Amino acid sequence: MLEIILPYILIGVLSAISFSQAVIHVTPDHFPFQALVQGNLGGQAGALISKKHVITLAVDLNVSEMVTVYLGFLGHPLFEKYRNEGQGQIITSKKIIIHSRYMNISDKYINNVAIIVLSHPVQLSSSVQPIDLLSVPPIPGLHPNISGWVAGDDSRLQYNSLILHDVDTCIYLYGTEFLQTQELCYEEYPSSGLNLVGNPITVNNKLIGLLTFSENCVKHQSYCSDFFLIINLFPFITWIHTQIGAGVKSHDTSSPNILDLQKPDDLIEENKRQLSDIKVLQNTTLKTINKLSKKSNEMERAIEKILAAQISDRRENKDIISNIKKINETVHNLLKRLTNTILSPEET
Ligand SMILES: *[C@@H]1O[C@H](CO)[C@@H](O)[C@H](O)[C@H]1NC(C)=O
Ligand SMILES: *[C@@H]1O[C@H](CO)[C@@H](O)[C@H](O)[C@H]1NC(C)=O
Ligand SMILES: *[C@@H]1O[C@H](CO)[C@@H](O)[C@H](O)[C@H]1NC(C)=O
Ligand SMILES: *[C@@H]1O[C@H](CO)[C@@H](O)[C@H](O)[C@H]1NC(C)=O
Ligand SMILES: *[C@@H]1O[C@H](CO)[C@@H](O)[C@H](O)[C@H]1NC(C)=O
């Protein structure tokens, strides 16, 4: 029998017609950190961030209850028929840790993260692998992936590319509902319908955040549509690393204070990680600049053609031509400056 998500659970529903085209189906090997967390109130997605820890949303979780975590699955694990997939792993929780800074709206945690400590470590395989968090703030214009399943739908693992907006665009789209300190917002062209909350957002195999409800969805506790919001994990990174004992070699849980002290070796490791993340971001930005350069060159060729065809002795034509040339210079200089900035960050 199929398990149907209870109607009172918050489900973001997007128009069924608008997606189908964008989604790209993949096997669990492509997103081996993808997790599904099933509690008494239903299911939500998450990401494996260590052999023993899964990060997810705090909304709909009850620390006093146990949850079941599904890892390495291709079919939506809330549907019983997929649960015997050979590569899948099903592990119960030992403990749920909810971050203490959250907004309490209608008795729900919103915009908050929870870490699920597994009752035993995962068996690492090509389908089940933890993912690192992006250790620098994500920049607008990035094209990360969203991966996972569709809420309440008999769907297979899939992903889509999206584009991160800047803060101003997010405020324009969501108004005061948008929590700039902890959220990001994005656009998909066309929408994939990957609306299961907790679906991970990743770039070059680094975790940026998790799909989250908008405040409006939480308040009305009913079907809601078109919320393209992400919990930005960057502000939580120190807390997360402390909880999972990352960067701490002698993990002694009996004296938790030791977790607060970072050893020089760990700091160096952390710096290395950040440097590699910055390099990835540089590359992404460089690619964008190259694309811009190409476009600008194409435009220049078009302009040259137009100029060649102009009768250049007429005064207004001369003004237009000189304006176009000025714009062309400006674009060239801008691209040059951008390229220099991105290629020599140490010198600025
Ligand atoms: C959380 O779980 C405990 C134990 O099962 C239960 O007594 C309590 O009512 C639950 N809280 C919520 C908000 O569901
Ligand atoms: C949210 O706030 C209400 C009222 O202050 C309180 O009764 C409730 O326990 C809080 N809920 C959570 C999940 O913390
Ligand atoms: C998105 O996922 C696909 C499939 O795994 C991968 O090829 C691509 O590099 C990913 N894109 C980013 C920006 O991480
Ligand atoms: C950045 O791009 C260069 C050239 O394409 C490549 O050699 C390098 O490995 C890339 N670095 C990262 C961190 O992706
Ligand atoms: C545009 O500016 C560049 C750089 O100054 C120059 O090399 C190029 O000839 C200009 N193109 C036109 C059409 O004026």
Automatic annotation (TrEMBL):
This is Peptidase S1 domain-containing protein. Gene3D superfamilies: Trypsin-like serine proteases (2.40.10.10). Residues 9-245 form the Peptidase S1 domain. It comes from Rhynchophorus ferrugineus. One of its GO terms (biological process) is proteolysis. InterPro entries: CLIP_Serine_Protease, Peptidase_S1_PA, Peptidase_S1_PA_chymotrypsin, Trypsin_dom. One of its GO terms (molecular function) is serine-type endopeptidase activity. It holds the Pfam family Trypsin.
